[in-house]
Amino acid sequence: MMNDDPPGLYLHIPFCVTRCIYCDFYSDTRISMAGRLLGCLAAENAPRGMGFSAFDTVYIGGGTPSAMPAGSIALLMERIGGRFETAPGAEVTIEVNPDDVTAGKLAEYRGAGINRISVGVQSFDDGELKFLGRRHDARSAIGAARAIREAGMENLGIDLIYGFAGHTIESWRSTLETALSLGPEHVSCYQMTIEGPTPMARMLAAGRIEETGEELQRELFLLASAALTDHGYIHYEISNYARGEGAASRHNGKYWAHAPYLGLGPSAHSFAGGERWWNLPSIEGYCGGVEGGEGPPRGSERLTARQFDLETLYLGLRTARGLPLGFLSRFPAWERALERLENESCLRIEGDRVVPTTKGFLFADSLPLFFL
Ligand code: SF4
Questions:
Q1: What is the pLDDT at residue 366?
Q2: pTM of model > 0.70
Q3: Domains along the chain?
Q4: What residues contact residue 22 under an 8 Å CB cut-off, 6+ apart?
């Protein structure tokens, strides 16, 4: 099932003003290094022999791209545009933090061809935002969403988190209602997972917080799914909702469907032709490699046919598109698995495809195991 969709381009800006207590992503607070890093980002080449046709998505993620000094995103896009071809009508997204949003930056983003803004809101409850270590409050998140609309941006995404210590059904309902009142085209609801050496993991180990139980996690997930689908959103991936098919993230869809993508910047991942490679997570190593002409230090792997099928199974059962029946028949236990998971209302057959139900999304991590 090689995917020959047009490729996506990901630009990783690895800087944050402060670190949130739950975050395990690679990012760095030395924003003074931004100028050097952005120069390297604009100069990085794909590995030799890896050509990409015109990109129909560009995604500027991080880190916190909106924390970059005024003018730097426009300059980056200009330089990227001079080196890589972008397809007409490309989806061009930037991630922003609410308290970075200004009319000036929004005008800069629009001028640079950015047509989709994803705001890292996480919660509309000030106490929760403080606990999570976020820089903004609910008021500035609402203000950012309104400013994005006033700037003429028609594609607004809001990212939320649920299931952290102390989270309640009532506060989650209230956050979802506020998000809905802003009418975003896209909403992401990510379940909190405590991973890696984060301050939150240390708080858990020290007994200062408790992990949210599975039952409450399920209730929070189902509440989001019901609230958003009741308002006309499509629950198109386990954590993602779109106001209509056209509002689904075209870029993230490439990750879930093994479409080719090129990631530039420290820790960025790429995939093409069955090969995956990734830049190592070090700003110094990255810049040194790009400036020296040998390219950033990278790891790589070539997926075996078996790995490819297992990934396809895992990813496919997390999206509402599901998987073709013909693909599932590659797995020896597929008929028994399908019958059982249909009986348990986790999967259903739609035409020649097998798609997960909302209940199936709840158990998405374990569904693939039934087929093996
Ligand atoms: S702003 Fe985003 S990337 Fe930066 S520390 Fe917080 S969650 Fe992580």
A1: 95
A2: yes
A3: 8-256 (3.80.30.20), 305-371 (1.10.10)
A4: 132, 133, 161, 164, 192, 194, 198, 199, 200
